[in-house]
Amino acid sequence: MTLDVLANFIDGQYCPPVNGHYIDNIEPATGQVYGQVPNSDDADVEKAISAAQRALPAWQTMPLEQRADILYAIAKGIEARLAELALAEATDNGKPVTLATNVDIPRAASNFKFFAHACTQFASESHNMASTAVNYTLRQPLGIVACISPWNLPLYLFTWKIAPALAAGNCVIAKPSEVTPKTAAMLGEICHVAGLPAGVLNILHGSGTSAGSAICNHPEVKAVSFTGGTATGAAIASQLAPKFKKLSLELGGKNPALIFADCDFEQTVEEVFRASFANQGQICLCASRLYIERSIYEKFKQALIAKAKALQPADPLLADTQMGALVSKPHMEKVMHFIDLAREEGGNVLVGGEQVQLAGRCENGYFLQPTIIEGLANSATCNQQEIFGPVITLQPFDSDEEGLALANDSQYGLASTIWTTNLSRAHRLSERLNTGIVWINCWLLRDLRTPFGGMNHSGVGREGGEEAMRFFTEPKNVCVKY
Ligand code: NAD
User: Fold this and answer.
1) Tell me, what CATH number does 330's domain have?
2) Averaged over 69-88, what is the pLDDT?
3) Domain for residue 160, yes or no?
4) How many other C-beta atoms can be found within 10 angstroms of the C-beta atom of residue 334?
5) Do 235 and 262 belong to one domain?
6) Which of 91, 117, 116, 115 is nearest to 104 (CA)?
């Protein structure tokens, strides 16, 4: 087998890392090395910064409609290569190719379409001081910015940052996760074909400690938009705080689902199951702590168990696969460690909890059964720490207040869901849930105009719509006396 050797995309061209260093890229479904990823460092960052500096004056002064046309053409380029990108994403990440085809890649295209429109609609404020003066606020591009993304939704989250950064008139140095670099590498060519001028977007590969840190710390990088783990976010924030860079952090979650006896039972089972195990539970928004009103606890539990037993992990590249592989061996071992801890802390594993060995091509892949655990205290490790795998815990509750208190008993604050037909209760609880996003009777229903992000250890700042356009611009107020 010939290895798929990836390259950085700098100044509109693919180029090898200056240091010649590479990291193995492993296919999670087979456990086999199938490619190599540059492990870039300061030297590559310098090249990318020089290219971005050359490109910046023309890009930030380009008429908005022309900039929007280019972003729209990138979206069309992604759509034109849907099947190829979906296959690459499934191979790289282990997610079902059907999921990549229906969700990840179309959403990457939507990100560019959305911000192509957003930049033509983005307006700034003016404040009139009666008979005295008028203030108007300019929102100007920051210059060169960094976009750093994780492995779970590779192209989806990469483009969710890059599209608004470009739309706002910045040049970008972007780094995908070294664990899932393939579709990000392909994006360079798509942008080139779409007419994005050389140097406006530079895609560097490599580990966080080498490439990621070099990008974030470069003095010419004015802002960092980061999505990833909470510990990494803390490390980046502590490095960048004294440098006064703008920072947006989208971090981990431990998302509660509050399920009431008056919910639409069948629909709730269906949706909560999807919220728990989509993408093998590796979505920052996945429900992981399920609180179920006591009167329906047993019935709801049995319905979830039946669905979990029916969901068998399989080769992600097969069209009918609903559950693929976990992203890597270390990640699978981490998830298994949490399940062991749950057992030690008194949890009862109702279903799953074991690795699955498939036959044939995938015999060495990283597959895990959907896992449901009950009997753990809310203070148990598996109820407090992010597992980021196909593992959920169940707990009964008896009143709105108790459910709310359990849901809010967390250092995280990303997303929550409420399942009830009593809408006044849903509104009341939404106000008091400590999460940046609340979904009522749905999950992952996204309107790209809305603020997206978490509170507490789930992050700082919001992405999406105006929030992203504001993050990627510097406001400057001009006061004119009459
Ligand atoms: P990670 O923190 O290990 O890595 C994320 C990215 O940061 C990667 O590209 C990595 O190379 C880079 N990185 C690592 N150390 C760095 C450093 N010191 N400086 C600069 N860059 C560095 O996270 P992961 O394991 O790839 O992703 C899983 C995590 O991401 C989970 O915690 C999940 O909840 C979180 N996540 C959050 C959201 C959200 O929107 N809140 C979305 C998806 C994933």
Assistant:
1) 3.40.309.10
2) 98
3) yes
4) 14
5) no
6) 91
Residues 140 and 63 in one domain: yes
Catalytic residue, candidates 27, 89, 178, 250: 250
Q: What are phi and psi of 26, to 5 degrees?
A: -110, 135
**Per-residue model confidence (pLDDT) at position 453:** 98
Indicate whether 435 belongs to any domain: yes
Total domains in the chain come to 2
- Ligand 1 centroid–CA 328 distance in Å is 14
In this model, does residue 477 exceed pLDDT 90? yes
Q: Are residues 343 and 360 in the same domain?
A: yes
Best substitution site from 284, 385, 463 to test ligand 1's pocket, by max atoms within 8 Å of Cβ? 284
Read off φ and ψ for residue 479, nearest 5 degrees: -110, 120
Which CATH number covers residue 14?
A: 3.40.605.10
Chain segment 151-198, per-residue pLDDT in tens:
999 999 999 999 999 999 999 999 999 999 999 999 999 999 999 999
Structural domain of residue 115, as residue ranges?
4-251+457-481
Q: What is the distance between the alpha carbons of residues 95 and 279, in angstroms, rounded to a whole number? A: 6
Closest ligand 1 atom to the C-alpha of 235?
18
Cα(148) to ligand 1 centroid in Å equals: 8
Q: State the distance from the centre of ligand 1 to the C-alpha of 249, rounded, in angstroms.
A: 10
> Would residue 250 show up in a list of annotated catalytic residues for this protein?
yes
Q: How would you class 438 by CB atoms within 10 Å of its CB: exposed for 0-12, middle for 13-18, buried for 19 or more?
A: middle
Residue range 448-458: average pLDDT? 98
Indicate whether 60 and 196 sit together in one domain.
yes
Atom from ligand 1 closest to the CA of residue 454: 41
Pocket test residue of 25, 93, 152, 225 for ligand 1, highest count of atoms within 8 A of CB = 152
